[in-house]
Specification:
Keywords: Lyase. InterPro entries: ClpP/crotonase-like_dom_sf, Enoyl-CoA_hyd/isom_CS, Enoyl-CoA_hydra/iso, Enoyl-CoA_hydra_C. Belongs to the enoyl-CoA hydratase/isomerase family. By secondary structure, this protein is of the alpha/beta class. It is built from 12 helices and 10 strands. It has helices spanning 30-44, 67-70, 75-81, 84-91, 108-115, 145-150, 152-161, 167-172, 185-197, 201-214, 219-233, 237-247, and strands spanning 6-11, 14-19, 51-55, 60-62, 97-101, 104-106, 118-122, 126-128, 165-166, 178-180. The strands form 2 sheets. A 6-stranded mixed beta sheet has the order 1-2-3-5-7-10, sandwiched between helices. Strand 2, helix 1 and strand 3 (51-55) form a beta-alpha-beta unit. Helix 1 (30-44) packs parallel to helix 4. The longest helix is centred in the first third of the chain and has 15 residues, at 30-44. The structure holds 4-(N,N-dimethylamino)cinnamoyl-COA (DAK). 4-(N,N-dimethylamino)cinnamoyl-COA (DAK) is lined by residues 24-25, 27, 63-68, 83-84, 87, 104, 106-108, 111, 130-131, 134, 139-140.
Length: 257
């Protein structure tokens, strides 16, 4: 796919997208989000891709939605364009997405990282929801996913004051998986994505679905859902191969079947 705002490549089963609008700190305009969603969906259908890695630039993962583009929008235009639709499609991607965050992850940038499944951040990363300072509030999950991740007290402070938190604070608040040194971020994130891409694809996809479900439903419904997916995996060749390989003390070869 050709995009003016994304750099895209694939290697070792990992689809790699770099947000690339450095002159505005990767501010997310509508076209960029549309391109991103199209690429994610295309890899979701591609059996050669097992995991996706999303990167930004050294100064910013993304400093939010494009304020210039939104500034003159009316409520009716917002309703007509319904930008939530694209953001919602990110939620439906079934393969795991690893976000590698350096620098600013603000507003929509923070929400985009939160829409990913695993977040690695370098020491320079800052996570924040500063929308309040420009007269609005988070609109792509910042009040919901953030609150589920860090709890009400922390989320309330971030959303109402607009003040960002550091990578270390984000780690302590369970917002991200790891903080790594600046120069190691890309390599660590790539290694993690490659590791995910080597897992049995059907089990990986269903495991992601089941963990995501935990944020949406009560315990009983969640456990029922988990059990059904678990039983289903016994219909896959990969389950037979994985368990047989264990018994035979060899590495399994998974085929996504
Ligand atoms: N939009 C547009 N341009 C931006 C931008 C943004 N979000 N962030 C930075 N830029 C531009 C700056 O205007 C500047 O452009 P020039 O002046 O050079 O032309 C360039 O990037 C470099 O920025 P600065 O000169 O400001 O750089 P500094 O290092 O001094 O400051 C900063 C970095 C990140 C602290 C600052 O740029 C900043 O405060 N940026 C805005 C952060 C922000 O408020 N972000 C939240 C935006 S609102 C939705 C989905 C999502 C959203 C809404 C709806 N739906 C599905 C409906 C999300 C909303 C948001 O994210």
């Amino acid at each position: 796919m050709k995009s003016d705002f994304l750099k895209v490549s694939t290697e070792k089963g990992v689809g790699r997208i770099r947000l690339h609008r450095p002159e505005v700190l990767n501010a997310l305009n509508r076209q960029m989000v549309a391109d991103l969603v199209e690429q994610l969906e295309s890899w979701d259908r591609d059996e050669h891709i097992g995991a996706i890695l999303l990167l930004g630039g050294p100064k910013a993962f993304a400093a939010g939605a494009d304020i210039e583009e939104m500034a003159q929008a009316t409520a009716v235009e917002m309703l007509r364009l319904d930008p939530f639709v694209d953001w919602d499609r990110i939620r439906k991607i079934s393969k795991p997405i690893v976000a590698a965050v350096q620098g600013y992850a603000l507003g929509g940038g923070c929400e985009l990282a939160l829409a990913c499944d695993l977040i690695l951040a370098s020491e320079s990363a800052q996570f924040g929801q500063p929308e309040i300072n420009i007269g609005v509030m988070p609109g792509a999950g910042g009040t919901q996913r953030l609150t589920r991740a860090v709890g009400k007290a922390r989320a309330m402070e971030m959303v109402l004051t607009g003040k960002p938190i550091t990578a270390q604070e984000a780690f302590q608040a369970h917002l991200i998986n790891r903080v790594v040194p600046e120069e190691a971020l890309e390599e660590e994130a790539t290694k993690l994505a490659e590791e995910l891409a080597s897992k049995p694809p059907v089990a990986l996809r269903l495991a992601k679905q089941a963990v995501s479900k935990a944020a949406e439903v009560g315990l009983t419904e969640g456990l029922d859902y988990e059990q059904k997916l678990f039983y289903f995996l016994f219909s896959t060749e990969d389950q037979k191969e994985g368990m047989q390989a264990f018994s035979e003390k060899r590495r399994p070869t998974f085929r996504g079947k």
